[in-house]
Design goal:
By secondary structure, the chain is an alpha/beta fold. It has 4 domains: about 180 residues, MoaB/Mog-like domain (Molybdenum Cofactor Biosythetic Enzyme, Chain A), CATH 3.40.980; about 55 residues, Molybdopterin biosynthesis moea protein, domain 2, CATH 3.90.105.10; about 90 residues, Molybdopterin biosynthesis moea protein, domain 3 (Molybdopterin biosynthesis moeA protein, domain 3), CATH 2.170.190.11; about 70 residues, Beta-clip, CATH 2.40.340.10. It has a 6-stranded mixed β-sheet with strand order 8-5-7-6-10-9, with no helix packed on it. A 6-stranded mixed β-sheet has the order 17-14-18-23-22-19, sandwiched between helices. Strands 24-27-26-28-30 form a 5-stranded mixed β-barrel. Helix 3 runs parallel beside helix 6. Bound molecules: adenosine monophosphate and magnesium ion. Adenosine monophosphate (AMP) binds next to helix 3.
Length: about 425
């Protein structure tokens, strides 16, 4: 279905997204590297991690209290002989201590439950009386005990290749003794902003010029998506220099361009890519903001030759994918999230995952034209059942200030013209 020319191919949001996901499912992540536990946080695991022993490794008390034999508590209150105390940590002897009828151990949270005990009674239901303790409440078998291996059996899979190492994955790796982890190298993502009016952030600026902000929003989003941004200089709307910079960008694992993809006379990106024998999967999506989004790929050998081995290069993966994102800053941000991100995540070795939405009640009516799926900057407020959401007022997809006031996007389906106050709407969080 790919095109070799810039003949327009405008897809629905769903179709465009499906194509990206399909292409993403064919890319292979690149090199692996070994990192210490903490520097591996946020990275993508390039191995699977198994339990090095039963978890917990012994029946663990979840409370401070008394380890008991449930049968001893048939009649209450009951006096049990306290034969010792079990703390969390190394025990005197190799084996767990044992409990006989009529006896109890005082036990701490996290400590191994003695043999013979089948429950722990919380300290709140006890009254020490010299060498004895009076227990005032019964216990069901297993109460306040996590049995050995209940969380995971020795050898069972805990974290799969492709998982993002968030705090719980890092904790789990630590808990099985992994101080070093194999992770995928971050794919290098070239960022190329185009436009004669665009000026570097610290450059001199004329009254009708615009500072480059897209390079920076993209760099942030790329970093968050697991990539390493490679910032290219701003490309003018001039085919020669633009081509040079696009060829440079194609040496990375992924190229993301902004601007120059609309219908204007100086929107040259697609033309230059066509000259580079690009294959286009789509040149537009029925969305707002971000309609002129372009997705395609170039055979690596057709672009400039790679000067150094790229982390994501492999014999099967000879294409460099590119996105031409519309230049309006909110369009750039939205189209990155919707389309570029799944490709980046695949190159980073992450398992594919769906876009995450949740629902909130609409605070003020929305009226739009049908035909486009809209991702409109909005403010989510209040909490719990009262959570509600409303559009921010904005001057369109160039209004970064409005976007900065927002904390999410409301997703308006393409067939909706009006959404009433109080209706449930889909919300996409923006970090
Ligand atoms: P274009 O997609 O090239 O037609 O640009 C659409 C709008 O986005 C224009 O108003 C541009 O000035 C603006 N724009 C394009 N590139 C950038 C950029 N890198 N940073 C900020 N604004 C941009
Ligand atoms: Mg432009």
């Amino acid at each position: 279905m790919a095109l070799a020319t810039t003949q327009s191919l405008v897809l629905t949001f769903e179709d465009a997204r499906r194509i990206v996901q399909d292409q993403a499912s064919h890319v292979t992540p690149g090199r692996k590297e070994v990192l210490d536990l903490l520097p591996a946080a946020g990275r993508v695991l390039a191995e699977s991690i198994a339990a090095d022993r039963d978890m917990p490794p012994f029946p663990r008390s979840t409370r401070d209290g008394y380890a008991v034999r449930g049968a001893d508590l048939a009649k209450l209150p009951v006096k049990l002989k306290v034969i010792g105390e079990i703390k969390a940590g190394p025990q005197a002897g190799q084996n767990r201590v044992a409990l006989n009828r009529g006896e109890t151990y005082s036990i701490m949270t996290g400590a191994p439950v003695p043999l013979g005990a089948d429950a722990v009674v919380m300290v709140e239901y006890s009254e020490p009386q010299g060498d004895f303790v009076e227990i005032t409440k019964g216990a069901t078998p297993g109460e306040n005990i996590v049995s050995q291996g209940a969380e995971a059996r020795h050898g069972s899979l805990l974290i799969e290749t492709g998982a993002v190492l968030n705090e719980s994955a890092i904790a789990l790796a630590a808990s099985v003794g992994r101080s070093k982890l194999n992770v995928f190298a971050r794919p290098r993502v070239a960022v190329l902003s185009t436009g004669d009016e665009i000026v570097a952030v610290d450059g001199e600026i004329g009254p009708t010029q615009i500072r480059n902000s897209n390079t920076y929003s993209l760099a942030v989003q790329i970093g968050r998506g697991g990539g390493e941004p490679v910032l290219l200089p701003i490309a003018p709307d001039e085919p020669g220099r633009l081509r040079q910079l696009i060829e440079e960008g194609l040496q990375s694992d992924l190229l993301i361009m902004t601007g120059g993809v609309s219908m204007g006379r100086y929107d040259l990106v697609e033309q230059v890519l066509t000259d580079l024998q690009a294959e286009f999967f789509f040149t537009g999506a029925k969305i707002q903001p971000g309609k002129p989004v372009v997705f395609g790929r170039v055979l690596s050998s057709a672009g400039a030759s790679r000067t150094e081995p790229s982390p994501a290069a492999s014999s099967k993966d000879r294409y460099t994918y590119f996105f031409g994102l519309p230049g309006n800053p909110i369009s750039t941000m939205v189209t990155f999230e919707l389309f570029a991100r799944p490709m980046l995540e695949a190159l980073a070795g992450m398992r594919p995952r769906p876009l995450t939405f949740f629902h909130a009640r609409l605070k003020s009516e929305i009226r739009v034209k049908t035909g486009l799926t809209r991702f409109l900057p909005a403010i989510l407020s209040d909490q719990y059942e009262a959570t509600q959401v409303e559009l921010v007022s904005w001057q369109g997809s160039g209004d970064i200030a409005a976007r900065a006031r927002s904390n999410c996007y409301i997703v308006v389906p393409a067939d909706r013209e009006q959404i009433a106050v109080g209706e449930w709407v889909a919300v996409m969080l923006s970090q």
